[in-house]
Design brief:
The protein is α/β, with parallel strands linked by helices. The strands form 3 sheets. Strands 3-4-12-9-10-11 form a 6-stranded mixed beta sheet, sandwiched between helices. Strands 8-5-6-7-13 form a 5-stranded parallel beta sheet, sandwiched between helices.
Length: 465
C-alpha cells in the first residue's frame, strides 16, 4: 500500500517510510492511496475475534509487506498486553440503547494508549531492523504525551521530547508524563497553549537542521498515520459487539483535533454500517462551527474543564477535506494556505458531503458538569468531562433511537477530579491500583518560553540515544 500527501506535492511512500516521516514535506498529511473495503460477510466473520485478533486483521493491509505477518501479529498482541480489562475496550450500557465504549483501560487511562502502545512497538521494531536512531517530538493537550512516553520508553533507539502547555493540563496528566524516569525522556512545559506547542512541532518538522547529523524527527501526534490506523479498530470492535454488520450503529466522539472521529469515518468507508458520527466539542468549537455554518475559522482559545479538547486548529480535518475535494491536493494546498491568513469556506458540494457524514454539538462547561451529574444520578456511572461532552452531544443529535448510540469514553474520571467534584461527586475519584503512588513520585520537566529557537536548542543539547 502506498500513502500520498493531502497537498499533492510529496512523493508517495510505503508504510515504513510514513511511520518515520509523520508530516509530509509539502506540509500535508499522509493518507492511504486506496482504503481496503470489506463486505458484510467479511465483517461478520470477525465477530468472534478478540480485540488483538481484530486489530491484526484491520491493521494488516495498511502495513502491507513492510513487516512480516507473524512479526506484525506479535507486535499487535504485545500492544494490548498491559491493558487492565480483558475486553480491552469494554462497552457499558448507561441507558436504553445507549452505551459508552471505555477507551481508558490502557496504562495511561486514555484512548491514546490504543494507538501509541502500538506506535511505540512499531517504531522499536523498524528502528532496530534499520539500525537507525531518531528523535520523537510531540505536542500534547494532556493525554498524548503520557501515552507516547509509555509507548516509547522501552525503545533504545530514540529520544522523546513532549511539549505540553505550562499549567494548562491537569495534575494527573502532567505527572503521568513527568514522573517517568529515563535519560531519553524529556518533558517541556511551554509558556503558551496547545496550538503553540503544535505549531512548534510543525515548524520543527519543516526544518530539521537543528538536529545532529544522522537524526530525523518522528511524529507521535495524530499527524502520524499509524495513530489513525490503530484507532479504526475499536469502531469495528464496538459495532460487532452491538450486532454489526446486520445492524447499524452510531458513535459520538469527543474531539478537538479530529483524529479520533476521522478514524470512525474511515471505518464507515471500509464497510462498517455507521448511521451517525457525532462531533462533540467544548467551546473551542471550530469543528462544530464549520459543520453548522461552513466557516473554518480560528478563534481565541478558551480554557475549559475538558483541557484535552482545548485546541484552536483541528489538524486532522485536512484529511477529511482532502476526500471532500475528491483528493485534489492543489485545492487543499490553496485552502490551507488561505486558512492560515483568514476564515475560509468550502464549495457547496464539499460542504454537503461533510454535512451528510457528520452531526455536531457544542457543549459548555455548565452542560458538561450537569451531564456528569445526571448520568451518575441515573446509572451510578461516573464520566470524565470529555466523555460527558460526548454523551451530551449524542443525546442532542441522536436521530433514530432504534440505532444503538455509542459514546467514546476517552479518559478515566480520576484524571479530572475538579470537573467531577463540581458535578457533586463527594471526593476525588481514586486512581487505579497501578497509579496509587503517582502524586508522590518526583517530577522532571523543563519550563521554556514560547520560543522556537530555545526549544530546539534544548532538544539538540539533550539527545542521548
Amino acid at each position: 500500500m502506498k500513502y500520498i500527501s493531502t497537498r499533492g506535492k510529496a512523493p508517495a511512500l510505503n508504510f515504513e517510510d510514513v511511520l518515520l516521516t509523520g508530516l509530509a514535506p509539502d506540509g500535508g498529511l499522509y493518507v492511504p492511496e486506496k482504503l481496503p473495503t470489506y463486505s458484510a460477510e467479511q465483517i461478520a466473520a470477525w465477530s468472534k475475534l478478540s480485540y488483538a485478533e481484530l486489530a491484526f486483521e484491520i491493521v494488516k493491509p495498511f502495513v502491507d509487506d513492510c513487516i512480516p505477518q507473524e512479526d506484525l501479529r506479535a507486535i499487535v498482541n504485545d500492544s494490548y498486553s498491559d491493558f487492565r480489562h480483558g475486553a480491552i475496550a469494554p462497552l457499558v450500557q448507561i441507558d436504553q440503547n445507549e452505551w459508552v465504549l471505555e477507551l481508558f483501560q490502557g496504562p495511561t487511562l486514555a484512548f491514546k494508549d490504543f494507538a501509541l502502545q502500538m506506535l511505540g512497538r512499531l517504531l522499536d521494531y523498524v528502528l532496530e531492523r534499520k539500525n537507525q536512531k531518531v528523535v520523537v517530538m510531540g505536542a500534547t493537550s494532556g493525554d498524548t504525551g503520557s501515552a507516547a512516553i509509555q509507548g516509547c520508553k522501552r525503545c533504545k533507539n530514540l529520544d522523546i521530547f513532549i511539549l505540553h502547555p505550562y499549567q494548562r493540563v491537569s495534575e494527573v496528566q502532567r505527572r503521568q508524563m513527568t514522573t517517568v524516569a529515563g535519560d531519553n525522556i524529556h518533558n517541556i512545559a511551554l509558556k503558551g497553549h496547545f496550538d503553540h506547542c503544535q505549531a512548534m512541532v510543525k515548524a520543527s518538522f519543516a526544518d530539521q537542521s537543528f538536529l545532529p547529523e544522522g537524526r530525523q524527527l518522528v511524529a507521535v501526534n495524530s499527524i502520524n498515520w499509524a495513530r489513525i490506523m490503530a484507532q479504526i479498530v475499536y469502531y469495528f470492535y464496538a459495532g460487532l459487539a452491538l450486532g454489526a454488520p446486520g445492524r447499524k450503529v452510531s458513535f459520538s466522539v469527543p474531539t478537538g483535533n479530529f483524529g479520533d472521529i476521522y478514524a470512525g469515518y474511515l471505518a464507515k468507508q471500509m464497510g462498517l454500517p455507521i448511521d451517525q458520527l457525532v462531533i462533540a466539542t467544548n467551546c473551542n468549537d471550530i469543528l462544530h462551527r464549520f459543520v453548522s455554518n461552513n466557516r473554518f475559522e480560528k478563534q481565541e482559545l478558551q480554557h475549559t474543564l475538558s483541557p484535552s479538547m482545548d485546541i484552536v486548529i483541528s489538524s486532522n480535518f485536512e484529511r477529511m477535506l482532502f476526500d471532500g475535494y475528491e483528493r485534489d491536493g492543489a485545492a487543499i494546498d490553496d485552502l490551507m494556505d488561505r486558512f492560515n491568513r483568514e476564515p475560509v469556506s468550502v464549495p457547496d458540494s464539499v460542504f454537503a458531503r461533510v454535512r451528510d457524514l457528520f452531526d455536531s454539538g457544542r457543549v459548555s462547561d455548565d452542560e458538561t458538569v450537569a451531564t456528569i451529574k445526571s448520568v451518575f444520578d441515573e446509572s451510578e456511572y461516573l464520566l470524565d468531562p470529555h466523555s460527558a461532552i460526548g454523551v451530551h452531544a449524542a443525546r442532542a443529535c441522536w436521530r433514530d433511537r432504534s440505532v444503538p448510540m455509542v459514546t467514546l469514553a476517552t479518559a478515566h474520571p480520576a484524571k479530572f477530579p475538579d470537573a467531577v467534584m463540581k458535578a457533586g461527586y463527594p471526593e476525588s475519584p481514586a486512581l487505579p491500583h497501578h497509579m496509587q503512588d503517582l502524586l508522590t513520585l518526583p517530577e522532571r520537566y523543563e519550563v521554556l518560553d514560547n520560543d522556537l529557537t530555545a526549544v530546539q536548542s534544548f532538544m539538540a543539547s539533550h539527545i542521548s540515544a
